[in-house]
Task: structure prediction
Amino acid sequence: MKLLHFLPDEEDEDLQTQAAAAASEQPAIKVKSDRVPWPALLLLWTLALGPRLFVLFFVTNPENAGAGWHGDVYHHWQIAYLTKEIGLFDPSGPRLWDLKGLDYFWGILHPILLVILFFLTGSIDIVIPRLLASFMGAVVVVLIFSLCRRHWGYKVAVPAAAFAAISPVAVFVDSTGFLEPLGVAMVLFGIWCWPKKGLWTGIAFALAAMARAEAWLFSFGMIVAAFLKPKDPTTGVPKLAVQRVPLAMAWVIGILIYMKILLDRTGNPIYPVWENFLVNAFGQWEFRGSLSPDEVHIRPYLGVLLALGILGLIITLWKRPKSYMFLTFGFGYLVFTAFFLGYTAYLESWENWFWQERFFDFPYEFGAVLIALILFVVIPKRLGKMFLPVAWGLAAFGLVASQLEWSPILALYAPTAITWNHNLQDGKYLGALYHSSPAYEAGVLNMPPDPPELVYAMARYDNLDGRHIMGQLYDPFYPQYLPPHFRYSDHPDLGDTLLQCWLLKTNSTLFAVDKSSVNYLRLLRDQPDWFPQVGAVPNEGWQVYAVNVPKLSKAACAANVTAVTQVGS
Result:
């Protein structure tokens, strides 16, 4: 049963409260609040922001967030940029926009914030999402400090916040521009507001769900946990009932609005959860087919993390100390991460560098909280204050030792310079080609939907704005657009006309064709006179053609679509 004393319980956390109650018979003395002044928190935020800005501007190339490795950062940028250029002016109303069909995959909060920042700054630079993530990562540090100080005092808050401020994984992930700092900050802010501001907690949890798909699960779990709080023994009435109602209502209203947006735009009210977890978990996005030796080897280690997370979660919910909301989130995050990475089909995507990746950003920070709790609360409770100097020595050693993680992280980042230089070169080349002729500038560049780094280079360095880029994902051969029995090879005339009408409808004047695109290569063979080659992008395996397709009437195009739909019927 000693294991149950690992986490402070109500008695441990209420010692100061009881002492104050015992002295209540003494004359009232006006004392200053023990709240940390806002200027002090702002200073802490600035100190936490410092390492992130240093890495952003002096350790890494500010324009290279990790091309080919952290390509998702550019993809998030692309969604926000194309939303600004195209989505806001969609005839059906403002919406997110993407060339790869993942416009609503991650959430709506991050692209909305980036669009606002693009307008406010007048810039579309990748530094903006990197700064946003760095700012929010520093907010996470402040919130960890505040929550630890609230529940265990400065002796836990200082070392825990110090680790979060300089942890190589946290600093690097935040400075490259990922979404995690935004989602984690929203959840921690909601926990910080609880229990005095239930409305703001609900709003923060709903915003977290709009920032990260996993926050749907976390925020729902936190709301359930909020309803488990014991009754106030002095009143016999649930002490937090008055705050639970606005908490639940704010979250439900926010989620319902979000679900309505998702239903209208994707046809699935839980689209991010469905695509991120349910589809991923069952392997529909995995292509390896079997586990590698490294993946088999890593599973037991993830299993240990999963078991520790489950044990911590059970103890936390059983004992329910005042800190249980924070602990529930931390242990729940660990359970989710270990289970999803190790015990779903996503394990087939495992890479050995995942330990230095965003997946373990907050788990490392929470782990530091637990270590600080052991060093400065649990052990001194049994050995006395004489252990505190040893605790501070161990904490200092841990902070210094953690910096060894920079070596493998920077070794992973270094090769991305080659990929970035290729993307930059190719983007400038395509942009210059597009601007080389008024005939090309009169229409759009029709190109493969990947990579987003190349789109960034074109938009940032050659002023080829998103309105003049057409992605090829939703071409006429997109599966949902064709009857199941239609094959281009069986009906080349119909297929050629489908693409001819599509190129005319999209006003394509340049056509970038990937060497693996079977349908486009067939069209080029069938109609060589329509597509004189004007360039190439060897790094991507693309050939670039001018588009000189004959004009067709809308009626002729409609008749061709009708003929295609009748194939096999």
